[in-house]
Amino acid sequence: MDNYATSDYQHKAVSVEEQGGSSRTSTRGYRTALVLPTLNAGSGFTEWLEAFRSQTHVPDRLILVDSSSTDGTVAMAGQEGFEIHTIKREDFSHGETRQRCVDMLSKSDIIFFLTQDAVLASRDAIEKLLIRFDDHKVGAVYGRQLPRPDAGPIEAHARLFNYPERTDVRTAADIPRLGIKTAFLSNSFAAYRRTALVAVGGFPSHTIQNEDTYAASKMILAGWKVIYSADATVYHSHDFSHTDEFRRYFDIGVFHARDSWIRERFGHAEGEGLRYVRSEFDYLRRNRPSAIPSAFLRTGLKLLGYKLGGHEQWLPVWVKRRLSVNKRYWDKGKLKGGLKE
User: Fold this and answer.
1) What is the pLDDT of residues 146-198, one digit of tens each?
2) Which residue in 5, 18, 126, 149 is deepest, having the highest Cβ count within 10 Å?
3) 16-240 has which fold?
C-alpha cells in the first residue's frame, strides 16, 4: 500500500471568570494524571508503551481502565506502573467511564486522555500539551493526529483534513468563523484542566459517544479556551470499511439529535461535511484517482447514516442496535461507567 502519511451531570456551567484558573506560570508543579481505556490492545501495545516510556513528561498517576481484556494488556501496563481498574465490557461508556476517572483523580490539576491505538509521535508530545495550560484561561487542549505510516489515501486525508499543521486557539468568539468546528476535540489525545472540566459538569453519561465534543462545547460557552496544539502529535488513523463508516455516522447523528443544543449554538455539521467532501475529492484526484468511486460511496453511506441517526426516535431499538457501533448503548437499564465510586 502506498504511504500517504505526512450518571447525567446537571451542574451549573461556571464561566472561567467565575471559577478562576490556575495562577501557575510554569508547567513545573502541575499534578498530572493519564487515563487510558483499553480492550485487548494486542501486539501494538508494545509500540504504544515504548513511545510512552520515552516521554519528557510522564504524568504522576497512570490509570488503566480495562474492559476485561483476555490478552496481555493488563500485565504489560502493570509493569509500566499503571494502576489497573478492570470493568465489565458491557459497563464501558465513553463519557461515564472517563468521568468516573476524573472523579477519582480529585487531586490532579491536569488530566490527559489517550487511546490504545494512538501512538505518541515525539518524545515531547505530552509536554507540548501540558505547556498550553500556562494560560490560565485554557480549559482543554488536544493534539494533532497523523495518519499511520501505512495509511491509504482515504484514511490519510481524513487525518490531514481534521488535524491541520497550524495550531488554533478557540473561544466563543470563533463560532461565527468556525461553526461547529469550534468545539471539535478528540479524547484520543487530549488534556483537560480538571477544575474547568468539573465546572462545566464533566463528561456526560447519557451520550452515545462524542463526550469530548460535548465537554468542549460546554467549556467554550462558559468562556474557556480550547486549543488545538498541532505541535503535539500522535499516530492515529483507521482503515474503516464502508459498513464501519455508516455505523459511525449513525451514532454521530444520534449524538447531535439527542443534544441538539450543540447544533443550535454552534451551527449544523452539514456545512463542514461539504467542505470535507470537496477537500477529499481534490486530494484523491491528485494522489489516487482510482479511490474516488469508493470515496463517493462512503460519502453517501455517511450521509445516510447521519440522517438515520438524526431521526432515530422513529426506529425500533433492535434496528438502532443493528445500525450502531455502540450497540450496548441501546441495552435498556445498562449500568454505565463500570468503575466504583
Assistant:
1) 999 999 999 999 999 999 999 999 999 999 999 999 999 999 999 999 999 99
2) 126
3) Spore Coat Polysaccharide Biosynthesis Protein SpsA; Chain A (3.90.550)
